[in-house]
Amino acid sequence: MSLRAQDERAQAHRTLTTVLAELYPRTVVRAAAGVPGAWQNAYPPEQAVPVEGMDLDRPVAVHLAVHYRRGHGRRFRFIAFDCDAKTAGAEQAAADARLLSNAAEAEGIPAVPAASGTPGGVHVWTGCVEGVAPAVARRINDAAARLCPSLDKAPLANPQEGLMRPPGAAHRNGRRSTLTAHTAEEAVNLLGPDSAPAEAFERLAVRLETLAAERTAVPDADDETSTGTVPPSIRQRGPRLRRIVEDEAGCPKVDAPWRPLGERALKGLRRPLSRRDDHSAYKHAPARSMALAGWTQAEGLAVVRDAALSPALEWLRSERQDDGRRRPRAAEETERLWARVWSLAVEDAARMPRRPEDDGRGAPSEVQQAVADLFVRMRAAGPARWSRESGPADAATLHALAYVMLLAGTTDVSANIRRLGVLAGYTYQTAALALLRLIKDGWLTITAEAERRAGKARRVTLATSHECTDDHRHRCAIYTAPEDVSPVHLGSDRSGTPPALAPRDSSSSHLRSALTHHQADVWHEAGHHAARTLWTLRTKGPCTVTDLMKATDYTRRTIRRHLHRFTEDQLTTTKTNRRGETTYTATDRALHQAVRKPQNVDRMAALAVAYRVEEAAHEWLTAEEAHRSLPYRERPRRALADQTVIPGMDPRGRAYPRMVNGRPDHARARRIEAQRIGAVEMLAHAQQLTRTGQLLDLPHLSATGANQQSAHRSGGRAVIPSRAGCPHCHANPGERCMTWGVRGGRPAARWHVARRRAAQAQARATE
Known about the structure:
Elements: H1 3-23, E1 28-31, E2 34-35, E3 38-39, E4 48-50, E5 60-63, E6 65-67, E7 74-83, H2 85-88, H3 90-106, E8 112-115, E9 122-132, H4 134-147, E10 151-152, H5 154-157, E11 163-164, E12 178-179, H6 184-191, H7 198-217, E13 224-225, E14 228-229, H8 232-235, E15 244-246, E16 252-254, H9 263-269, H10 284-292, H11 297-305, H12 314-317, E17 318-320, E18 326-328, H13 331-351, H14 366-380, H15 383-387, H16 391-408, E19 413-414, H17 417-424, H18 428-441, E20 444-448, E21 459-462, H19 508-518, H20 523-526, H21 528-540, H22 545-552, H23 556-568, E22 572-576, E23 582-586, H24 603-628, H25 666-677, H26 679-691, H27 753-766
Antiparallel strand pairs: 1-4, 1-5, 2-3, 5-11, 6-7, 7-9, 7-10, 8-9, 8-12, 13-14, 15-16, 17-18, 19-21, 20-21, 22-23
């Protein structure tokens, strides 16, 4: 064996072991039947071999679908395409692989191509940590087979027996599957942590089905337009991804919902041109933007004829003379030129990657973009910024503000410190200090000061600059996120390439999950730094101690202290990976079950209700101050402080309680307001939210919230009529008693028999 062959063999071994160790959840793989030198293209179940110690020179295959939860069937962990060159040829297999890769990447799905080992064969791998439903995988497989003659449907056709050789695996002809565009580490990252969500594969199914329908209906129409052939610069974009239809005038039009032009398109349309500019170079981009927006040729022509509205389209209205001046064109000539420009723009727009706007969904709002940019900048600040003593409080406060911004639909929001404190899982004093640090560090800026008499909190928004202070604890905010620099691409126009997807942690649902996690009462015992460690485990999956140190910037001693607490509270489980390293995985156990000290049980719920009472008492006090600021003779008569508030009566119209010496009695005022707003019932609602893993937010608490019946049936099982809650599952009196499995998050089959029998005996004795 030559030295080059030895290096290729060793590299393939490294790729195979890396992919199996990092991505494949099972401990066995299917090996090829036969003997060395005469391996067969068959991987029977009896040929399952352990991953550890397997023969790396023997062809092996992995299951594309695996079990995610017991009793829920299989879901596809990988959506892999096998473009076989044996029947269709190497050129067709390569073209099919490019089509599938482009379609996947257009939906935000990273594609990892690999040479299959057969001459000209290509494997295209995509991953989904969440798992793709078999029905969606079947749709993708059927549509892709209609589009790609070289595709082998077998791997995705059967969730139980769908197999494919992983990158680095040997082929029966002696060659190996090799990655062609990525390293093994990059492939693991793209197919694992950075893989696309399941909803992206649903969009991929729709895209491939639409493309297959168009290909079947008009197989030879892609290279012709109503005014001539499609030039190579547009044809090289690939096949049409959007339908082209005819409008009422018989002119071509992209089949997309009509919408106004975006800010970027308007900026290009209104760009003023000088005499030295090439006017013909600026006509295509605005026309393509109109086509993408669902406009018709007539609507675009109306814009062309308006010189004040479309300076960039001057080439269509006038032509350049020898002396540099421009002579107006005839109206018929402008219309003829626009027809050709429009035809090419429609063809170009039909081949561009699809965007949410094409399905009738609007682009992300300015608030969503600002919040997404905030989280990108928070990650750019590095884990060291959020691992210092006040780091978790600062990060949680920013999370809470981002959530309020998404709800309000604006980045200029009221920073109610009591609400922010509850959302972040802290007291209002800690939230106030964190807010001041974020303002001084330049993450936020004040737009309006608080008005105590008016009951208005300080208003803040995202800052774009700040002045550094002399405080040694000052850490400047990040305003410009680092951009990924791509290699220079020559030839085709990339102006239509969609921007990168917004980070997942900037979505409203992810923010709710993060805030709910940080609100858990257990962090008042274990510390909010431990909350950050567990959240890393829950979002990144199984991690070693070294992985957690890199992700959180904590020391090994701190990480081990956190993990020791988590293991004792059954919040994590341990497992040894194929490298012999101990990995930690977060369990599904509810965080409120891990509280040890009785005084910390329902602490955040009680704190939230106390803040609601304080806000009500403060409103009463400000009304009292406004009343006493009036001249004595102009003050209206008021009811006593203990007067019951009847419907239609202003609760602030009562006299504020005072002590014998005339000073305000704030404690009594809080007791009266607690009774008026139903603090006891509100506490029950808050406890219900915290114990069921829902977000606790001050404006959403109500005295009747706990009485709302759940939409799910209890299963017909009897409740436990005991005085005390269950110490095992923390069931409240009157609730069903159950234990929760550590791994699957499902109720265990066995009930607490002794408690049930004792409760039944007590019930019979009282009858």
